[in-house]
Amino acid sequence: MPPARIKLADSVYLNVIETEKFKTNFISAEFFIPLRAETAAKAALLPSVLLRGTEKYPDMAALNKMFDYLYGSHISPRNYKLGETHVIGFSSYVLADKYALEPTPVLSQLLGVLEEVIFNPVTDGGVFSADYVETEKRNLCDRIKSQINNKNYYAVKRCRDEMCRGEAYAVSELGEVDDVMAITPESLYEFYKWLITSTRVELYFVGSTDTAALTSQLQDMFGRCANTTAPELSTQVIRSAEKSKEVIEDQPVKQGKLSLGFRTGCTLSDRDYHVFAMFRELYGGSPSSKLFMNVRERLSLCYYCSAIAEAHKGIMIVSSGIEVSNKQKAQDEILRQLELTKAGEITEAELVAARNSLINGYRELYDDANSLKSWYTSRMLAGRDDSPEDAAAALQTVTAADIAEMAKRVTLDTVYFLNGTLKPDEGSDEQ
Amino acid sequence: MNGSTIKVKENAAIGEKYYYIKHKSGLDIYVIPKKLSTYYAMFGTKYGSVHNKFRIKGEEEYTEVPDGIAHFLEHKMFENEDGVDTFARFAETGASANAYTSFLCTMYLFSCTDNFDESLEILLDYVTKPYFTEQSVQKEQGIIAQEIRMGEDNPGRALLFGMLRSMYKNHNARIDIAGTVESIAKIDHHLLYKCYNTFYNLGNMALCVSGDVTPEQVIAVADKVLKPQETHEVECVQYEEEPQVYRPRFSRRMQVAKPLFAIGVKDVELSEDPYERMKKNAAMTVLVNMLFGRASEFFNELYKEGLISQNFGAWHDHNHSMSLVCIQGDSDQPEKVYERFVEYIDKMKREGLSADDFERCHRVMYSSYIKGFDSTAEIVNNFLGNFVFEGGDMLDYADIIRSLDFDYTSAVFNTVFEDTHYTLATVLPLEESEKV
């Protein structure tokens, strides 16, 4: 069952999934804007500035003490991109009222704090506190620079960025250092005012409560966000690559990281997306996939080799960590497995494995509130509202021939290789 | 029944219960019923990376094995005599399978939403049927070498082991769980069988499952797969550790944007009594949040001064083998953070902890325990690793949490936090000349 969708005001929606099975309630409030370089840094910065303090809870210590008092129900910032849509906001898992040690309306009080965080920030002269903005700017810049620390992540991100250079999708959801540094308390406040009065707002509640009371409380909180000017949200899709390019980057590390970026020719808005989901699972989605069974198990080239897809943008990245000298060998095998899939060399066992694995993944979503929210948010952006159970049912009729046809749409766009220049015995751990 | 016994244990206050089954094969089985969509099962052995010198009780000689062999063995359990890979077997039932090795245990697990009995049968079957050959061992060396290389490029891992190697002189937590490319080259199938036969004895193992499942259902599957086994006890060489840290500092350079730091606090006071350990663990949980949580003076002061960021965090471990607190994050001035840490602890010792802070953090610990029952994966991981294998009980922990008091917590604070127990590990950015 898709969530009950309640319109609280123009461009403001509450989505409710009622369930009795959790000891916690989940709440999130997210703002949706087009992913653009002009706004990315401000959007990334805003949630952390808002969490620095409010009129009632003027600093982090006061806010965090309140979260602790409400049974450790912390409000966490959110910042991510879905295709070329930038999503920012907050979420919290809140202990169900009935488990409170003394009778406390935990959820309703937590919503009160959320209201403070979003609508009553600490201000100074009509704009954000300069101190809070400066500290958070520095922290955000550190986060942007620290992306280099995690090589697995870095190599996938670099491949994606090289591949989508010039497209909105290449804009980082963290923004760029120069753009962050240019932000002032005034410019951030102006952005904030625009965000809360001119964009699409999606609220999610998963759990069990008096829905009428919840709706009324949220209406009071978010009614002020009503607007008819929310920008259109869309993603430019390049359905196939004309030719492929290769980017090699040297770094003083031991392992080489190979990332292959593909245009998939299929997005979540397409009616046959479930066939693509089957293709990706079978090709590189699980330990039974062609990539795992061949690049890792048969050739012993790597510890991990898998394919991840961005459903809105229509891209897929295959990533693996390998001995530098095995780069070509690994690349050849990854591409050969794709060719075999295109040629329809798909066994019944592979088909069953991919289908079962996907169905199991879909059904497990029902046990995590945030996963359910993410599922429906993603679907909504693609203009659909099918449930995980609906998606599971759609897989039943997918054949090997369908998957081979889908594989033929996939084209190689960018090869990215992080070339490790350290010898195995360099950079030892020992003192 | 059929030679197996079932006991039920309930904690009405939190609405949770479990069944304990002494299976006729000798295996301890725990079933925690939950009305959730996901079933989760974990079959584990008390065998981890630290157990590298051992004998079966009654044997004269200790056997010493290469570093990383417990983890290597975990990988090799996925291969079977009939040539069908374990993942391929799970693919037929749709279960999502995995395994991991820690310092103290090796765990085999799956989650699923359908075909639970069939999946459980596969789990029990493959973990009790080793099959190692010279060729399959060689094949795995290439794969694990890449797993090790990946770890060697990970600054967070370098920081953690830097801290542990400064803290401990003899404890095997100094050793990387996966070993080194050199140490795993010494592993062969004979050694794997030796380790398997020692540690994968049903008396040294346990099974834990959670989901919409009955104890009878689990017993029926266990009856089908598990043969009664003569259980034995394993003895491992114990290492003596002094209360003070081995070295006060560790530092190395890697490609990081900003220095990473980890302050380790060593604690060697480990009770033999599991319930005492549960109590001290609860006290340490509250303490870490009181002293270094997001609402603490330490976090807020240093954050305001720009000495630490949101990457700051503190955690602790307290089990039969090791006890420590770690305070970590990134900072342009790790030594300054360390200085402030020492000053802060001294001040807290002089002035005493705040009873209000205790009440607040006590409440947070209680709710985080309750919230842990919302996921079968979380339940099983916690239940088996932190309670069953430690001789404790996850439902009794609710009462321990409730009765924890301020005075005991203060006493733990005063004994754990001592100047000679601290070490500082850092991973610093590369010098310009080292950047490629």
List keywords for this structure.
heterodimer, A: 431 residues, alpha+beta, Cytochrome Bc1 Complex, Chain A, domain 1, 2 domains, 6-stranded mixed beta sheet, 5-stranded mixed beta sheet, 42% helix, B: 436 residues, 7-stranded mixed beta sheet, globular
Summarize the SSE layout with pairings:
The complex is a heterodimer of chains A (431) and B (436).
Chain A: E1 4-9, E2 12-18, E3 24-34, H1 37-50, H2 60-69, E4 76-82, E5 85-95, H3 106-119, E6 123-124, E7 127-128, H4 130-145, H5 151-163, H6 177-181, H7 185-198, E8 200-207, H8 211-222, E9 245-251, E10 256-263, H9 273-284, H10 290-298, E11 302-310, E12 315-322, H11 327-342, H12 348-364, H13 369-381, H14 388-394, H15 400-407, E13 411-420
Parallel strand pairs in A: 2-8, 9-13
Antiparallel strand pairs in A: 1-2, 3-5, 3-8, 4-5, 6-7, 10-12, 10-13, 11-12
Helix pairs in contact in A: 1-4, 1-7, 3-8, 9-12, 9-15, 10-11, 11-15, 12-14
Chain B: E1 5-11, E2 16-22, E3 28-33, E4 39-45, E5 53-56, E6 63-64, H1 69-76, H2 86-93, E7 96-101, E8 106-112, H3 116-127, H4 134-152, H5 155-167, H6 181-184, H7 189-199, E9 205-211, H8 215-225, E10 234-236, E11 249-254, E12 260-267, H9 274-292, H10 297-304, E13 313-318, E14 323-330, H11 334-351, H12 355-371, H13 376-387, H14 396-403, H15 406-416, E15 422-429
Parallel strand pairs in B: 3-9, 11-15
Antiparallel strand pairs in B: 1-2, 2-3, 4-8, 4-9, 5-6, 5-10, 7-8, 12-14, 12-15, 13-14
Helix pairs in contact in B: 2-3, 3-8, 9-12, 9-15
- The tally of beta strands of chain A, per DSSP, is 13
Order of strands across the widest beta sheet of chain B?
Answer: 1-2-3-9-4-8-7
| Strand and helix order of chain A | EEEHHEEHEEHHHHEHEEHHEEHHHHHE
* Number of structurally distinct domains of chain A: 2
- How many separate helices of chain B? 15
Outline of chain B:
globular
Any guess at the CATH architecture of the largest domain in chain A?
2-Layer Sandwich
Q: Report the order of strands and helices of chain B.
A: EEEEEEHHEEHHHHHEHEEEHHEEHHHHHE
Largest sheet of chain B: 7 strands, mixed
CATH fold-level name of the largest domain in chain A: Cytochrome Bc1 Complex, Chain A, domain 1
* Termini gap of chain B: 68 Å
Could you tell me the strand content of chain B as a percent range?
A: 15-25%
Strand content of chain A: 15-25%
Q: Kindly name the structural category of chain A.
A: alpha+beta
